[in-house]
Structure formats: structure tokens, C-alpha cells
Write a structure and sequence with these properties.
The complex is a heterodimer of chains A (320) and B (292).
Chain A lengths: L1 H28 L5 H26 L7 H18 L4 H23 L4 H21 L9 E2 L6 H19 L2 H11 L1 H6 L4 H24 L4 E2 L6 H14 L4 H17 L4 H18 L30
Antiparallel strand pairs in A: 1-2
Helix pairs in contact in A: 1-6, 2-6, 2-9, 2-10, 2-11, 3-4, 3-5, 3-9, 4-9, 6-9, 7-9, 10-11
Chain B lengths: L1 H30 L6 H17 L5 H24 L7 H23 L4 E2 L9 E4 L2 E4 H23 L1 H11 L1 H6 L4 H27 L1 E2 L5 H14 L4 H20 L6 H15 L14
Antiparallel strand pairs in B: 1-4, 2-3
Helix pairs in contact in B: 1-5, 1-8, 1-9, 1-10, 2-3, 2-8, 2-9, 3-8, 5-6, 5-8, 6-8, 9-10, 9-11, 10-11
The chains are: A mainly alpha (320), B mainly alpha (292).
Chain lengths: 320, 292
């Protein structure tokens, strides 16, 4: 019975989102949405994918990673090489971007996941910087001056990628593997002693998160006309981190909401980058002091519509 | 000869890293927090030194002292406002706050003052060159190294011979036990932030004199590298930070000398990842077992 209900909710949300997609597509086709709004919409989509992928690493598995821009950069450059140098179709480029980023996730994940907490944070930060410096020194991708990319990202691509990301991450989280990841977040030692292969699940979470960050990278690269290593510095990682922290460490819908909210705020503050950074950093500090679990905590937005005492299993703990 | 020249450059750079790394390592030792804002305290120190020299027309030593004092107060202020409410929060919450404070200082500073860089006047310290066995040595590098060594000796005396130093060692060993023994833990933590930030301020002035150009985002990279230096020497261990800083400076200079100067910034992080994987306790640290 509960399985049936859950399946019904699943198909309901899929059809709702498809209707949303069709409405926007008609608006774009009819010319009612000017390029500025279209661009904002693309950014929201890309940021949702990034927030969801980092949510899997930080929110679900509890591994504090602040080098997410590194995966984004790997995906962006890999897919740009695919379309621009090897002249592959866009869909192949996106998947290759994701796979190369997942490979990078494995390479950084396997050694550095022996680390915990602050040390892992610093190691991932170092990884992000190393990626940036490597890209800066490779002439094949243009070095510091960057790489020309043609504009291929369109609304159907972004929407499809967002939908796939959210479905995969949501289903992963509620599967056996996802529960194992949550148990690592709550108490790694206890999870270990219950027979969960913690290293395996941490690396899996890293690889999946990196894969989707890579796909976001592909969309990001083909949304601009040029990509440069300086687009993928520490500040980009911070932009992604704040989406997850603001939404609630452990809440997918929170991360998605924060991605929508902050992308809109960023668009309005585009001409005042300092003000934007000041607001962002104040939000982080005040949030950590007064509400460290984020806006949503580990709750999902769907749980608000459920009756109390139902089959929902609320998790009172937070990732932080 | 070229190699020795590069080694001397490396030691000068390394002494700057070492001074910043000391602040990281002391704060980490006492509150287990990576103070991301430390690199920005370094930047503020550099600007305070710059304005003391150009606007107030002071010479090197008074400028250094003013910068150290301002940074000490600034460090205590950061600790009291941002970190103290989080004393009992999770480490991740504290880390996120530290990143927030760091960005707030950087962009608040740009907002107030503008992002344009400044250039230190070149006549603050004498720039004579003298030759020893064919190696030309800049008197500035010698003075900078000397200042760094003097500050480190003063730090050792404070930590090992004074009452506040004893309190600092006690709190970093076991904060609860120290509290039971009548040590004021809050004041001790503030004193640690004050001393660490003063050293960062001194490093800022030295950096400005040595590299001339300063700008509001200059603290990010040296801050991160100084953290690498602190980890390299074993975080929480004061002599470790000194050795780690000097070693990192020399490694970077050698990489530049080998013709890979564009890769210089990556080397620090590769060192970090290698040391975290193979020797997470650092060069001077002892391996601690986790208790369940």
C-alpha cells in the first residue's frame, strides 16, 4: 500500500514537472520569455544540478567537500573538448563530461577519503585548486585565456538533466546504498561496526556527486561562449557550498529551493558583486550561529504535506 | 650559485609562511578550528603597515608594532563575535563560519576601500646587496629573516616561560581540566587569537616590503599555503609550523628554479595531499589513536 502511494506521488511529480517543462517551452517558443529570463532559467537549472550533487556528498554522506568547482571544471573542459575539438554531438559530450568528472572523483576520493572533517575539507579545496592550475598550464585547452565554446545549452537539455539528477539522487538516497550513506553521516564508527563498508560508500557518493557536477559543467560550458580556469576557483566552490548549507544539510528539496532563491538573488545583484559576497557571507555566519541545520534541516518539502504519525520517518538529526 | 640564490629566496618566503602558519597552528591547537579568516588578518596587517608608513610617515619598526597591535585586536574581535557563539557547535558549523568570516573581511574591505592594489614604498628598509662567495644577498632578505626569527623566539618565550603561555598549553591539552584548575578558558583563547593575529600582521608588513604589491585578496593564497605549512609540520605544534613554513618556502623556490614557476601554487597543495595521506600527523606530530 505504501509502495503504491509512494509510486503515485512519484508519477504525480513527474507529470507536474513535465507540464511545467511544456509551459516554459511554449513560452520560449512563442517569444514571451526574453533572453534574460531564459538565461536565468538555465542558471537555475545548472545550479540545481550542482546543489543536488553536492547535497549527495555533504548532506547525505556527511563528507565535507569544498572543491566542487574542481569537478565542475573537469566536466566543463571535458565536454568542451568533445564538442569543439572532436566534434561529437552534445549528448555524448555531456555524458563524457560526467564520466571524466566521476573518474576525477574516484581519483581524489580513494586516497582522501581516509581523511575526516576539516582535513578532508582542506584536501578537497587543494584538489580544486590543483585542477584549476593544471587547466591553466595546458595549452591544448587555451591556458589562462580559456577556450571558445559554441552555445548549445537549451532549455530541454537543462530540464532533462535536472530531472534525471533529481530522480537518481532521490532514489539513491532512499535505497539501501543511500541508507548506508546516511548511517556514515550520523556516526561513521557505528556504521563501520554494523558491517557497512564505509570507504566504499564514501567513494560511491563522491563519484556520483562528481558525475552530476560534470554534467552541470558540460551545460555550464555550452551556456557561455568561453570558459576560463578563473571561472572555477575557490569562490565557485563556495557558491555551490552555500546552496547546500542554506537549504539544509541533508535536504534535497532544501538544496533545490536554495538554488532557485540564490540564483535569482545573484541575478539581481549582478552589478554589485561585492554586495553579493557580503550578503552571502553574512547569511552563512548568521545561519551557523542561529540555525546551523539550514532552512529545511533534513526535512523534505514533501513531508510537509504528509499527515502526522504517518509512514514518514522523520530524521531529527542534522548532518552538521 | 643560482641554486643558493633560490634557496635564500625560499627562506625569505618561507619565513613569511612560517609566521602565518604559527597563528593557524596555535588556534587549531586550542579550539580545533581552521581559522580561514587568518589569511585576511594577514592582509589587514599588510594594509595597516602600508598606511602607517605612507600616511603617518613612520619607519619600519613602529609600523610593524602598530600593525601587530591592530591585528591582535582584530583577531580578538573576530573570535568574540563569530567563533565564541559556536564554541560547542559541530566542527563543520565552525568551519563554514570561518569561511564566511574570511569572505566577509575580504569583500567588506573591498566595499569600503575599493579593490585597487597599493605599492609599498621601496625605501622602508635599506636595499644594499652584498656578495658572499659569489652569491649576491639582498640585505632585505636578511632583515626579514631576522625579524621572523626574533618574533619566533619571543613567541617561544611567551609560550614556555609566562603564565598565559602555561594557560594556553593547559587549555590545548584539556580544556575542561584546565577550567577545573581555575584557568579562564575564554581569556586564554582570546589571548591565543591575539598572539596568532599579531604574528600574521607582522607577516603582512614583511610581505609588503618584500613583494611591494598588496591588494585586498592577497591573503587567500598565502593563507592556504600557510595552512599547508602548519599541516606539514604537524598541526598544533609550534616548532612544526616554523619548520613547515620554511620547508614549504624552499620547496616552492626550488620548483620555480627548476623552471616550473607556473606550477608553483599547485605544488603546495600536492604536498598537502601527500602529507595528509602518508603522514597525517605531520613531521613533528605523534600518531593519536581514535577512542570510541
Amino acid at each position: 500500500m505504501t509502495t503504491f502511494k509512494r509510486a503515485k506521488g512519484f508519477w504525480l511529480s513527474i507529470s507536474l514537472s513535465l507540464i511545467f517543462f511544456a509551459v516554459i517551452q511554449v513560452l520560449i517558443g512563442g517569444g514571451s520569455l526574453n533572453p534574460f529570463y531564459q538565461n536565468t532559467l538555465m542558471f537555475i537549472g545548472i545550479n540545481i544540478i550542482l546543489a543536488a550533487s553536492l547535497h549527495l556528498i555533504i548532506g547525505v554522506t556527511g563528507q565535507f567537500s569544498i572543491g566542487h568547482a574542481g569537478f565542475l571544471a573537469v566536466g566543463a573542459y571535458a565536454s568542451a573538448i568533445m564538442t569543439m575539438k572532436l566534434e561529437m554531438p552534445f549528448v555524448v559530450a555531456l555524458i563524457v563530461g560526467g564520466l571524466v568528472a566521476a573518474l576525477a572523483g574516484l581519483i581524489i576520493g580513494i586516497p582522501s577519503l581516509r581523511l575526516k572533517g576539516d582535513y578532508l575539507a582542506i584536501a578537497t579545496l587543494g584538489f580544486g585548486e590543483i585542477v584549476r592550475i593544471i587547466l591553466l598550464n595546458i595549452d591544448y585547452v587555451g591556458g589562462a585565456s580559456g577556450m571558445q565554446v559554441s552555445h548549445l545549452t537549451t532549455w530541454p537539455w537543462v530540464f532533462a538533466a535536472v530531472l534525471v539528477t533529481i530522480i537518481v539522487i532521490r532514489n539513491f538516497t532512499s535505497s539501501t546504498h543511500g541508507r548506508a550513506c546516511i548511517s556514515i553521516r550520523e556516526d561513521e564508527t557505528a556504521a563501520d561496526s554494523m558491517g557497512i563498508n564505509t570507504t566504499y560508500y564514501k567513494v560511491v557518493a563522491f563519484a556520483i556527486g562528481a558525475f552530476f557536477a560534470g554534467i552541470a559543467g558540460g551545460l555550464y560550458a555550452h551556456n557561455f561562449y568561453i570558459i576560463q580556469p578563473s571561472n572555477f576557483g575557490f569562490l565557485k566552490s563556495f557558491d555551490i557550498l552555500i546552496l547546500v548549507v542554506l537549504g539544509g544539510l541533508g535536504s534535497l528539496s532544501g538544496a533545490v529551493l536554495a538554488a532557485i532563491l540564490l540564483t535569482v538573488v545573484t541575478t539581481f545583484l549582478q552589478d554589485y558583486p561585492e554586495t553579493r559576497m557580503i550578503i552571502y557571507s553574512l547569511v552563512l555566519i548568521v545561519m551557523m550561529i542561529y540555525r546551523p541545520q539550514g532552512l529545511m534541516g533534513t526535512k523534505e518539502i514533501t513531508s510537509m504535506f504528509k499527515r502526522k504519525g504517518g509512514s514518514s520517518h522523520e530524521n531529527k538529526n542534522t548532518a552538521a | 650559485m643560482e641554486l643558493i640564490q633560490q634557496l635564500i629566496n625560499g627562506v625569505s618566503l618561507g619565513s613569511i609562511y612560517a609566521l602565518i602558519a604559527l597563528g593557524y597552528t596555535m588556534v587549531y591547537g586550542i579550539v580545533k578550528l581552521i581559522n580561514f579568516a587568518h589569511g585576511d588578518v594577514f592582509m589587514v596587517g599588510s594594509f595597516v603597515g602600508f598606511y602607517s608608513i605612507t600616511v603617518l610617515d613612520l619607519s619600519f619598526v613602529p609600523a610593524l608594532l602598530i600593525s601587530m597591535t591592530v591585528c591582535a585586536l582584530f583577531g580578538v574581535l573576530i573570535e568574540r563575535i563569530a567563533y565564541k557563539p559556536l564554541r560547542n557547535a559541530t566542527r563543520i558549523a565552525a568551519l563554514i563560519t570561518a569561511i564566511g568570516v574570511s569572505l566577509l573581511i575580504e569583500y567588506g574591505f573591498i566595499y569600503v576601500r575599493g579593490a585597487q592594489p597599493e605599492a609599498y614604498p621601496s625605501d622602508v628598509l635599506p636595499t644594499d646587496k652584498f656578495n658572499i662567495f659569489g652569491v649576491s644577498i639582498n640585505s632585505q632578505s636578511v632583515l626579514i629573516f631576522g625579524v621572523a626569527v626574533v618574533l619566533m623566539i619571543i613567541l617561544q618565550i611567551i609560550v614556555h616561560k609566562t603564565k598565559i603561555g602555561k594557560a594556553m598549553r593547559a587549555v590545548s591539552f584539556d580544556a575542561d581540566a584546565a577550567k577545573l584548575m581555575g584557568i579562564n578558558v575564554n581569556n586564554t583563547i582570546s589571548a591565543t587569537f591575539a598572539i596568532g593575529s599579531a604574528l600574521a600582521g607582522a607577516a603582512g608588513v614583511i610581505f609588503g616590503i618584500y613583494y611591494i604589491k598588496i591588494e585586498p585578496l592577497m591573503g587567500v593564497l598565502p593563507g592556504l599555503k600557510a595552512f599547508v605549512a602548519a599541516v606539514l609540520g604537524g598541526i598544533g605544534i609550534i616548532p612544526g609550523a616554523m619548520v613547515g613554513g620554511l620547508l614549504l618556502g624552499v620547496i616552492e623556490a626550488l620548483v620555480s628554479a627548476a623552471g616550473y614557476s607556473l606550477w608553483r601554487d599547485a605544488v603546495a597543495f600536492i604536498v598537502l595531499i601527500l602529507i595528509l595521506i602518508f603522514m597525517p600527523q605531520g613531521l613533528f606530530g605523534k600518531n593519536k589513536k581514535e577512542k570510541v
